[in-house]
Inverse folding.
């Protein structure tokens, strides 16, 4: 038996949402290299097929694809069904798919705001809820919910993205404590600025963001998996963002709001 097959049997199956780009694709690469069998979720079926074929060829690990739009009832339902399957249990769920909107609250539509909430919050809630009963019964498994440093403060005036990520971090920390006695982990992974397609997709101009602030998706994933292994409930990769989170947690709100007006406030007006 090839060694990749042996290790894939040992590692179990992982389901990654938003697996075709950025942090999700980095999770898929790393987990395939570690011998996990994979189920990859995103909307673009052709791109999913290309990513899956590359991973199968490079790592010899089984990779299934599940095209689904997680901002819809039907798409989320399909992935829930896969997570509840007792025949093919999923031992690691990575809720990674997420979006931001460029327009500030007053200029965005209620439909767009609701779509952001359905993907960033409701899908995370529903998929976690579908995965945990099987994991607690089997007394093993983990859920990584990709959140953001932005969730630690309302630092982008008019953006509800931070609020959606505050929910992801807080609920992961809370649910994570409740499933610990069953040998199951839930962890929020909170990256800072990471080079992916995320900002381009939202139409956010990041050209003035200093280079030293950017993280590599592969590094975010490596530190996240190390922290999961250590049993952390919240993981903030990289020392500069650990420092930023300390600042966001301890700086008086009034001071934070002043800083926020000086930065994202301008982006908000430009975006209108
Ligand atoms: N990049 C950053 O600076 C940063 C910082 C902090 C946190 N994050 C978080 O990291 C996570 C991953 O973002 P990323 O930066 O890697 O973004 P990305 O490069 O834009 O990748 C997003 C992935 O999600 C999928 N996706 C988007 N909408 C979807 C939907 N409705 N249903 C299913 N899949 C969908 C995309 O594929 P399809 O388009 O084919 O669906 C793609 O695979 C997000 O939760 C984001 O909030 C990012």
């Amino acid at each position: 038996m090839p060694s990749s097959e042996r290790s894939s049997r040992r590692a179990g199956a992982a389901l990654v949402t938003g697996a075709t780009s950025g942090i999700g694709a980095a999770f898929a690469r790393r987990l395939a290299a570690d011998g996990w069998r994979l189920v990859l979720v995103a909307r673009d079926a052709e791109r999913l097929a290309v990513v899956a074929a590359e991973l199968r060829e490079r790592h010899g690990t089984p990779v299934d694809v599940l095209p689904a739009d997680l901002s819809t009832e039907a798409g989320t339902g399909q992935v829930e069904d896969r997570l509840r399957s007792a025949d093919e249990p999923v031992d690691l769920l990575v809720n990674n798919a997420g979006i931001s909107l460029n327009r500030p609250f007053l200029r965005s539509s209620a439909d767009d705001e609701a779509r952001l909430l359905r993907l960033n919050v409701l899908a995370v809630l529903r998929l976690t809820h579908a995965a945990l009963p099987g994991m607690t019964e089997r007394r093993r498994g983990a859920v990584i919910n990709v959140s953001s440093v932005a969730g630690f403060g309302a630092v982008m005036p008019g953006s509800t993205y931070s609020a959606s990520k505050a929910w992801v971090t807080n609920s992961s920390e809370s649910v994570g404590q409740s499933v610990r006695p069953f040998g199951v982990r839930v962890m929020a992974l909170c990256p800072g600025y990471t080079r992916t397609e995320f900002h381009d997709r939202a139409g956010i101009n990041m050209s003035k963001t200093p280079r030293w602030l950017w993280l590599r998706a592969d590094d975010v994933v490596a530190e996240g998996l190390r922290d999961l292994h250590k049993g952390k409930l919240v993981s903030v990769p990289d020392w500069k963002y650990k420092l930023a989170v300390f600042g966001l947690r301890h700086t008086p709100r009034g001071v934070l709001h002043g800083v926020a007006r000086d930065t994202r406030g301008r982006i908000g007006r430009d975006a209108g």
